[in-house]
């Protein structure tokens, strides 16, 4: 876990195959006004990578996020993330709404057996059999991935630092279990925290999901970033940071 700055807390969770480093531009933008908190998810980068599949269930990731808040001394926080991390942040908000001041949901996963969830089991099997490079070339940065060249380069760099068994468990236990927004809609309508929903204009699946998510959340602000793909916070950091800071200042902490 890395904590920078002081003030109201903002926690950001990275995507599948990434690390806390993926939010360096956001930490730099936040730390002058807020306490910015980032961490490596279990099975990723510097965090532990248990051998047992049962250590990678959605509840485990929700508990990890709560532990991050506890360790940072944050009773409540704005919680968010990118892709897989956004899915975890929303699960946390549904399970622990009293600890959430706001939500930041970027490139939210399609879920419901679509998108990467549809390929998760085959992806995990290839990781087990042939390792990171073969699985990455087929499912992450290859032509069939749908990632732009910029996204592919960014994702590849972080992905090859990971441990294959851990990523396979994450795919089977967490990614494949991601519900579609339509399934979540009844619960989402009860969330009172303001939400920022972000997608890159060139990431068509995320744009469609973002519109559905923003429609289901009662207090959502939708931002589609021009010229950006799936890794929107790194591809267009200035636009992403501007949207994030405006959301925090105008919707979350306006009365503070």
What does this protein structure show overall?
This protein has 256 residues and is of the alpha/beta class. The chain has 11 helices and 7 strands. It has helices at 24-30, 58-71, 84-95, 116-130, 132-139, 149-159, 164-175, 181-188, 204-216, 232-235, 237-252, and strands at 2-4, 9-13, 35-39, 77-82, 100-106, 195-200, 220-225. It is globular and about 50 Å long.
Summarize this structure briefly.
The chain has 256 residues and is α/β, with parallel strands linked by helices. Helix content is 47%, strand content 15%. Strands 1-3-2-4-5-6-7 form a seven-stranded mixed β-sheet, sandwiched between helices.
Question: Which key terms come to mind for this protein?
Answer:
alpha/beta; globular
Walk me through the topology:
Blueprint: E1 2-4, E2 9-13, H1 24-30, E3 35-39, H2 58-71, E4 77-82, H3 84-95, E5 100-106, H4 116-130, H5 132-139, H6 149-159, H7 164-175, H8 181-188, E6 195-200, H9 204-216, E7 220-225, H10 232-235, H11 237-252
Parallel strand pairs: 2-3, 2-4, 4-5, 5-6, 6-7
Antiparallel strand pairs: 1-3
Helix pairs in contact: 1-11, 2-3, 4-5, 4-7, 8-9
